């Protein structure tokens, strides 16, 4: 086994303390907890879960210590106690790292009366009471409440308590605030009045996004400076979900966020199990070496806000293990210090224990892949949280198709498309990167010239980085097409016909045509290329007697090119990612898989055989390869919560042998057992008799 990472104790109160903070317990207190909860019970939970770091409620909306800051509301149940200190001291006695939690999104009546300018204002000019608890008021995130009052709270906590960081929840505000200060500030900065709509065609909305980014970036910097002036090793850690990488300037995050927290606490609706792991890929798509943490709730994550409930143990483990598979550090959060339902403790402890057993191998390796999805940050930063879900459907569809195909892959942000980072992959997928700059397009063309391959779909490159339409799509020449008709849709009853004999249209035995998309572009192939699929001209879907094609297939529904430098490109001029994400048609999954396999131009380095749905991750280090296999085979994998684990097996893992390497041993990290292996066609093969949830297979090379 590899040597373990340095202990938490060795890094206590040092600037790099966060590197040994690898398993987190978060306790978010309720106001009456000072007279109801048992701090010693939580010290025991710290031990049972092998947590080496904790995040504890301290202040902001409610202070859980005897604060002296004027207008800082202290829990009315606190009496002579100091529950925050009790938890901090208990954690430090276990050599744990400690982060204080603050929540600045609401204030009580006395503060609102004293400072009405701290309160958020809606578009009709009304001060905003809290949507869930109207007795209090929602704060304006861009006001002096955050820029003058909260720094005093941070100073007090940093000065008086033994902490490493302060973590802020709900610090970014809740949309556009129409208070007088925001109106004046925004007008001065942009020349616009505050936007009344979030339309991507509204220049004021786009300008507001930039203004908000500047204000909140300044807030992060100032809060961090407040803390470091008192204790230089401390940091302010903003709660920054994966979408925050699109909302904030990367230079600010690089300098002021030593680690990243993904506040995606569980799945809801029909979200798949792999979605938590996707956050890990997205984080390192921009910051490849920065630790990232997945916050998991022990309760259900639904719109109905059962925040003090417990979901199934299998669901908790599935969400955490998906994060671990893709490199996220585990963190669980419990709302309310009282523990009336203990069913969550054992599954959390089991998942944390598995992470502890994998930790040394994970710490000594880095993710690698032959394939990457380009994360379209240039496009998505123009969207709000509602429209972003629609825009991301294209990427989600490709993501799920690759999981089904058992193709290990990473993500790469279009904000960091350097040759070094691009060349780590043999295939880049642009599911619908609508907004691309000329420089980004040139980088992609140079990548293809160096031998890289692209799979591109729909309206990629149709708009500028400022979301303005282009007359000619910026990648058209590279992909070999001329646009003949703008996108149309939604349309029904569309089909694409197999055209000739090509690797991309293999596996559809018995079919002359398959389902098409719902938003279609008209394109003409130019230059040397092949068209594995053609559009079937439209025909009615009713009356039923009229449902038949009138004309033969024509016009390219896919363009495949081989380039002089060895690279390949595939262009699909319809919304294959989004429609697959909506419908999950098997033919669309095969079409994506075939396109990526053809673009790769070789057998994938990692393959897994067996009947199962698996999420894979591959990591490499000095003399070692680690393949993580996450079993997500479950009737509830798309609609939770999972009731129980469905074990799978046998599975056969096949790995291409690195050049010049000889295999010494293969180890199953969950148990420490050595596995038998064999060699076939220059590949090592290992059989796993049964897999329950997550395991890692480590190959030791000489």
UniProtKB/TrEMBL annotation:
Give the matching SUPFAM superfamilies: (Trans)glycosidases (SSF51445), Class I glutamine amidotransferase-like (SSF52317)
Instruction: Kindly give the Pfam families that the UniProt entry links to this protein.
Output: GHL6 (PF14871)
- The name on file for this protein is Trehalose utilisation
């Amino acid at each position: 086994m590899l040597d373990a990472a340095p202990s938490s104790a060795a890094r206590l109160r040092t600037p790099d303390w966060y590197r040994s903070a690898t398993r987190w317990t978060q306790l978010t207190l309720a106001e009456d907890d000072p007279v109801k909860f048992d701090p010693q019970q939580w010290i025991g939970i710290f031990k049972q879960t092998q947590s080496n770091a904790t995040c504890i409620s301290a202040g902001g909306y409610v202070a859980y210590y005897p604060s002296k800051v004027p207008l800082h509301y202290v829990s009315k149940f606190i009496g002579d106690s100091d529950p925050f200190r009790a938890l901090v001291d208990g954690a430090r006695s276990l050599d744990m790292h400690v982060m204080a939690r603050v929540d600045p999104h609401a204030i009580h009546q006395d503060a609102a009366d004293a400072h009405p300018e701290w309160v958020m204002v809606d578009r009709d000019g009304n001060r905003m009471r809290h949507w869930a608890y109207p007795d209090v008021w929602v704060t304006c995130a861009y006001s002096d409440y955050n820029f003058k009052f909260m720094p005093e709270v941070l100073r007090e906590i940093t000065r008086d308590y033994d902490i490493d960081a302060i973590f802020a929840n709900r610090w970014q505000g809740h949309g556009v605030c129409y208070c007088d200060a925001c109106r004046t500030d925004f007008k001065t900065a942009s020349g616009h009045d505050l936007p009344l709509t979030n339309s991507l065609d509204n220049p004021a909305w786009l300008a507001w996004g930039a203004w908000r980014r500047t204000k909140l970036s300044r807030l992060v910097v100032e809060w961090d400076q407040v803390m470091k002036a008192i204790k230089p090793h401390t940091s302010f850690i903003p709660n920054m979900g994966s979408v925050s990488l699109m909302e904030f300037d990367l230079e600010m995050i690089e300098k002021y966020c030593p680690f990243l927290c993904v506040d995606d606490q569980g799945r809801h609706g029909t979200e798949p199990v792999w979605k938590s792991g996707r956050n890990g890929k997205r984080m390192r798509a921009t910051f490849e070496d920065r630790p990232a943490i997945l916050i998991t709730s022990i309760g259900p994550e639904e719109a109905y806000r059962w925040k003090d409930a417990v979901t199934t143990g299998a669901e908790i483990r599935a969400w955490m293990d998906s994060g671990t598979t893709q490199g996220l550090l585990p963190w669980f959060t419990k709302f309310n210090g009282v523990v009336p339902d203990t069913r969550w403790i054992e599954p959390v402890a089991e998942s944390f224990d598995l992470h502890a057993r994998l930790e040394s191998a994970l710490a000594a390796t880095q993710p690698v892949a032959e394939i990457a999805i380009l994360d379209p940050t240039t496009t998505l930063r123009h969207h709000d949280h509602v429209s972003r879900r629609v825009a991301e459907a294209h990427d989600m569809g490709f993501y799920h198709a690759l999981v089904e195909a058992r193709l290990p892959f990473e993500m790469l942000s279009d904000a960091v498309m350097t040759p070094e980072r691009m060349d780590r992959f043999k295939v880049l997928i642009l599911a619908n990167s609508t907004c691309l700059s000329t420089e980004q397009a040139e980088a992609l063309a140079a990548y293809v010239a160096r031998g890289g391959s692209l799979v591109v779909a729909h309206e990629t490159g149709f708009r500028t980085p400022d979301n303005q339409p282009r007359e000619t799509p910026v990648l058209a020449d590279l992909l070999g097409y001329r646009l003949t008709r703008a996108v149309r849709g939604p349309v029904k009853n569309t089909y694409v016909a197999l055209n000739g004999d090509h690797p991309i249209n293999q596996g559809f035995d018995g079919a002359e045509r398959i389902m098409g998309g719902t938003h279609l572009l008209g394109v003409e192939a130019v230059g040397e290329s092949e068209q594995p699929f053609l559009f079937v001209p439209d025909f009615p879907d009713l009356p039923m007697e009229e449902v038949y094609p009138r004309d033969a297939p024509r016009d390219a529904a896919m363009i495949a090119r081989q380039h002089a430098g060895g690279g390949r490109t595939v262009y699909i001029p319809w919304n294959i990612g989004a429609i697959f994400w909506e419908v999950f048609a098997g033919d669309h999954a095969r079409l994506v898989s075939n396109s990526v396999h053809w673009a790769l131009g070789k057998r994938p380095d990692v393959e897994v055989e067996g009947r199962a749905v698996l999420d894979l991750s591959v990591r490499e280090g000095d003399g070692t390869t680690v393949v993580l296999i996450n079993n997500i085979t479950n009737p509830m994998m798309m609609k939770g919560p999972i009731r129980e684990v469905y074990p799978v097996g046998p599975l056969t893992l096949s790995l291409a042998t690195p050049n010049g390497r000889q295999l010494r041993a293969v180890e199953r990290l969950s148990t420490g057992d050595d596995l038998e292996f064999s060699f076939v066609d220059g590949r090592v093969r290992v059989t796993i008799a049964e897999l329950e949830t997550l395991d890692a297979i480590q190959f030791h090379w000489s």
